Amino acid sequence: MVALSLALLVLDSQFHVLEPLRRAVAVGLYPFQRAVMAPRDLAQQFNEWFNAASRIRTENEALQRQRIELSQVASHAAQLAAENAQLRRLLGVTDTVDQAAVVVEVLYEPANSFQQRLVFNKGSQAGLAPGMPVIDEGGVVGQIVRVTPMAAEAALVTDERVSVPVQVLRNGLRLIAFGSNAPGRIEVRYLAANADIKEGDIIVTSGVGGLFPAGLPVAKVLTVERDTASGFARAICEPLAHPERYRHFLVLQVDVARAQSNLQEADTGGSQ
């Protein structure tokens, strides 16, 4: 038996006489080998699928995060561009207004349905004082009503507590504009029923009182209500400024003390 085995080894090494038998045995064993290796192959395929799914999910999350970040960057860039454009327009306003001004930015808007206010990021340390007018490129926004060293609060022209001396641009008729209880509106009250004011008229500051420089746009007349029985009329106006759209405004540094002194002198002279 040993001799036969040695003979077969020698013959196979020299003449490959057992190669056909070896191939036949390999072919016969192949299905069994595949059956034995099937669990391993299945586990590998599952692991590869899981890894691929996990990799795809990770890449998708990274793409989503990148998309959101790019969207935020684009939005921020657009916001900065809009703010820069508005600041350039504000700087253009200072060229037309012969008055020192301070650029302020809105910190927040107080949540109060009865008062329409804005809080700015500068106060008395920047030279702001109660009574100073607030404007944007559209016209009068409001008036400073409260000041701290680092912040200031302004009431909008639509606030019921604000009154602005105005005149009709078309004919120079002097009036007083008040904040209205209607949202986003200004009222011109105490008009004679036959007052020369009509829809579409533009009203601007008259300069009376010294707080608001003359010629600043204020509002456009929407309707005029005339009551012939009482002899009075009232005009409802839409402000030309849009404080809800912007974050930066100009505060005109008028001489508040001098304006108040002039008003007191006028009142004293009138009473005498």
Protein traits:
272 residues; alpha+beta; 6-stranded antiparallel barrel; 6-stranded antiparallel beta barrel; 40% helix
Tell me what you see in this structure.
The protein has 272 residues and is α+β, with helices and mostly antiparallel strands. The chain is rod-shaped and about 140 Å long. 22% of the residues are buried. The chain contains three helices and twelve strands, in the order H-H-E-E-E-E-E-E-E-E-E-E-E-E-H. The N and C termini lie far apart (149 Å). The protein has helices at 2-15, 19-96, 256-271; strands at 101-108, 117-120, 133-136, 139-147, 152-156, 163-168, 174-179, 186-192, 202-205, 217-227, 232-239, 248-252.
Helix content estimate: 25-40%
| Rg on CA atoms, Å | 42 Å
The coarse overall form would be rod-shaped
Tell how many strands the DSSP assignment holds: 12
Q: Please count the helical segments.
A: 3
Structural class: alpha+beta
Task: Give the CA-CA distance, first to last residue.
Answer: 149 Å
Strand order of the largest sheet: 1-2-5-4-3-12
User: Low-confidence runs (pLDDT<50, min 5 residues)?
Assistant: none
String of helices and strands? HHEEEEEEEEEEEEH
pLDDT average, as an integer?
80
Q: Report the major sheet.
A: 6 strands, antiparallel, barrel
Query: How much of the polypeptide forms β-strand, as a percent range?
Result: 25-35%
